Automatic annotation (TrEMBL):
<keyword id="KW-0479">Metal-binding</keyword>
<keyword id="KW-0813">Transport</keyword>
<keyword id="KW-0812">Transmembrane</keyword>
<keyword id="KW-0679">Respiratory chain</keyword>
<feature type="transmembrane region" description="Helical">
    <location>
        <begin position="63"/>
        <end position="85"/>
    </location>
</feature>
<dbReference type="GO" id="GO:0005743">
    <property type="term" value="C:mitochondrial inner membrane"/>
</dbReference>
<feature type="transmembrane region" description="Helical">
    <location>
        <begin position="27"/>
        <end position="51"/>
    </location>
</feature>
<feature type="domain" description="Cytochrome oxidase subunit II copper A binding">
    <location>
        <begin position="92"/>
        <end position="225"/>
    </location>
</feature>
<dbReference type="InterPro" id="IPR011759">
    <property type="entry name" value="Cyt_c_oxidase_su2_TM_dom"/>
</dbReference>
<keyword id="KW-0496">Mitochondrion</keyword>
<dbReference type="Pfam" id="PF00116">
    <property type="entry name" value="COX2"/>
</dbReference>
<protein>
    <recommendedName>
        <fullName>Cytochrome c oxidase subunit 2</fullName>
    </recommendedName>
</protein>
<keyword id="KW-0472">Membrane</keyword>
<dbReference type="InterPro" id="IPR034210">
    <property type="entry name" value="CcO_II_C"/>
</dbReference>
<comment type="similarity">
    <text>Belongs to the cytochrome c oxidase subunit 2 family.</text>
</comment>
<keyword id="KW-0460">Magnesium</keyword>
<dbReference type="GO" id="GO:0042773">
    <property type="term" value="P:ATP synthesis coupled electron transport"/>
</dbReference>
Amino acid sequence: MAHPQQLGFQDATSPLMEELLHFHDHALMIVFLISAFVLYIIVAMVTTKIYDKYILDSQEIEIIWTVLPAVILIMIALPSLRILYIMDEVNDPHLTVKAMGHQWYWSYEYTDYEELGFDSYMIPTQDLMPGQFRLLETDHRMVVPVESPIRVLVSAEDVLHSWAVPTLGVKMDAVPGRLNQTAFITSRPGVFYGQCSEICGANHSFMPIVVEAVLLEAFENWLSLSLQDL
């Protein structure tokens, strides 16, 4: 959960988000080193009056400042490609949930179970309980088991939406007439918040996403109660 004046990312709750955080730190360190080197060169050029005719025209320096940036780009590109392939992998999911975007709420269908589905609306501010978050709480949460591969099929019924949960490292566009898929694994129990990340109309800001990760036994109990209520 994000907090006021937070500068970094939210704490990772999935292996994919941990990889993204590591790549962010890796790339940011390279940016810091390049920025410090460029600043040093600028200050040195402005403050010193000494020059060398071999520096003004040198094949060796031209080779260095051509090859070195290429090496740096490779150091950034290889980890990036690795994460891109990891994000597209959906290996033997234990549970499949279909998320449909509407104006302006989400509906979820647990496709492994017959007729298990519900709509998820934002709780109005005046109906919030103590400790609940304004504009982020929903009347029905998407409940998933911990440490299990979860596949999410994302689509929309009317306009473009986007199903995004930052702490899980998940963001997938919901396109009418098209079925996209993404996957995640929660590494610990908890309640994780997200929002629609595609401008979809007047109430775009009122389409929260709440994913609750519970232990397998608790998930089975919730599943049996939900099926009894149908």
